[in-house]
């Protein structure tokens, strides 16, 4: 286990004293589940509390537990050294939680919306002055129209069922595939499904706005653990494999490419232009990107890709003339 | 010794101090400080620990004895220590558990999970299924976030070096901060630009170097209400309904968003797709090249043609 920050542990130690003061005789596993930590961690915390107290640190100065109860795996606090009162929220803690709850409030498909609204109000009341600062942090979630997919996939995840997806890739290719859905992720802009794809035989992220149809299957998901919460440790969906390296010279206005795509390197050029190198999965994808950038790209490498982009543009202009 | 053990003993000692504890008393009496090798090592450790306690919301107050101005004492204000009563339901604790996972980096996820721990101490067990399967993860804010947030809470102006996206120009800005906004996976500061004398949005990733406060605290008063969306967009974005002619079997993602099918044109399917940003849709549509032709409106058609004409000059053969 990575070393825990002292502030996190101190917070939990104080929280444990409050919690155990209110709940005498709680089994260790229940305490662990309540705080979302391992039983070993709870025991280690209790052993630390047992030797803590007021200066002097004689037996009567220390926090104390019932030893008999402890021997049978149950925690009963017998002396809290006056630390039983719950600690208030720090300003940045209140801001981080309140801004997060207000973000969730905007998420479509969050069940029990009333709990989201009520907990926001309770937090604001408990936070006092910090609540005013929290309103200075504002998360504006995009709301793509994917509510029907979202609901169906959520149910499938809860029921442990496999689903059939009809999906269109960024290269405009439609595929059918069976997947074991693991989690629905929202990054503030889009929804993604993380799933074990039977066709690719690996974990894939599917953009919900590119899902054309969802059918819940009779079969149960075989690999739900491969897409479960442990994998969720990665902050952002991984969207790209990496086969083809390209280099683009882009205008300052297209700086978002350097900021939001997984670029290999960024070089500042004269006049605010940038040279970015990035690895991409398919030629089709990067060709679409460059076409959309228009005059904000002035140079593309390799040369064959530049030619392919130009050919596609010439072909499109001809189509416009034919339809005019 | 675990630093958390020393911190806990410090909190307990300062809570129980008859009136206050001086630094020398702390060093002599509190478990963990007695092992520091030198006065300097003690000073450094104690300064860090004071910051930690304050960040956790523990009301550490200094108390200077009347007779000796340089004799600083510390205590914990027990009246300000306690969390006000907050009666959480199991569903609400479930929401808080989801909320604590929202931030993907330490600068906000650490504080959020500490907050959750404190609330768990007084709350019931969470309702397990309240948020199962859903995860909201926001991109970590840039380093500038913390300084800007600090300036926002003390209502002071900030100054920083900024690279403008439209021109690439790098300039020093003085801004009265109003709000930090996350939109489309990016963080922005919205505030009043003193040079331009107008509200502006600044993408945090384009701030170069440090953000410093300038002038007095308490001078910035954000307007009661303002439309963050308008400031972010720069100008109002153009909405509309696109009429598109698609080659058969192409543009499945567009077809999924179509509001109404229309009569076909030559060998193409015609459909209508609503949009809220002409330029963003033009980026997407130009990417389809000849598979998608814009029939209207004219502003969208022209935006796509502009992109295609520029791209047509990229090749070596032209």
Task: Give a quick set of tags describing it.
heterodimer; A: 324 residues; alpha+beta; Arc Repressor Mutant, subunit A; SH3 type barrels; five-stranded antiparallel beta sheet; four-stranded antiparallel beta sheet; 25% strand; B: alpha+beta; 3 domains; 13 strands; 26% strand
- Helix tally of chain A equals 11
Q: Overall pLDDT of chain B, averaged?
A: 87
**What is the mean predicted local confidence, pLDDT of chain A?**
86
Provide the structure class of chain B. Answer: alpha+beta
Poorly predicted residue ranges of chain B: none
Strand order of the largest sheet of chain A: 9-8-7-6-10
- Strand percentage of chain B lies at 25-35%
Summarize the helix and strand pattern of chain A as letters: HEHHEHEEHHHEHEEEEEEHEEHEH
Structure, described:
The complex is a heterodimer of chains A (324) and B (318). Chain A has helices at 6-22, 28-35, 39-50, 67-71, 91-105, 113-127, 129-134, 147-159, 256-260, 283-293, 303-323; strands spanning 26-27, 64-65, 74-75, 77-79, 137-140, 161-168, 174-186, 191-197, 202-207, 211-220, 244-250, 263-268, 274-280, 297-301. By secondary structure, chain A is of the alpha+beta class. Chain A folds into four domains: 6-79, Arc Repressor Mutant, subunit A (Orthogonal Bundle); 91-134, no CATH class; 147-233, Roll (SH3 type barrels); 244-323, Alpha-Beta Plaits (2-Layer Sandwich). Chain A has a five-stranded antiparallel sheet. Chain A has a four-stranded antiparallel sheet with strand order 12-13-11-14. Chain A has a two-stranded antiparallel sheet with strand order 1-3. In chain A, a hairpin with a 4-residue loop joins β8 and β9 (202-207). Chain B is of the alpha+beta class and 318 residues long. In chain B, 35% of the residues lie in helices and 26% in strands. In chain B, the strands form three sheets. In chain B, strands 8-7-6-5-9 form a five-stranded antiparallel sheet. In chain B, strands 11-12-10-13 form a four-stranded antiparallel sheet. In chain B, α4 (90-100) packs antiparallel against α5 (106-122). At the A-B interface, α1, α2, α5, α6 and β5 of A face α1, α3, α4, α5 and β4 of B.
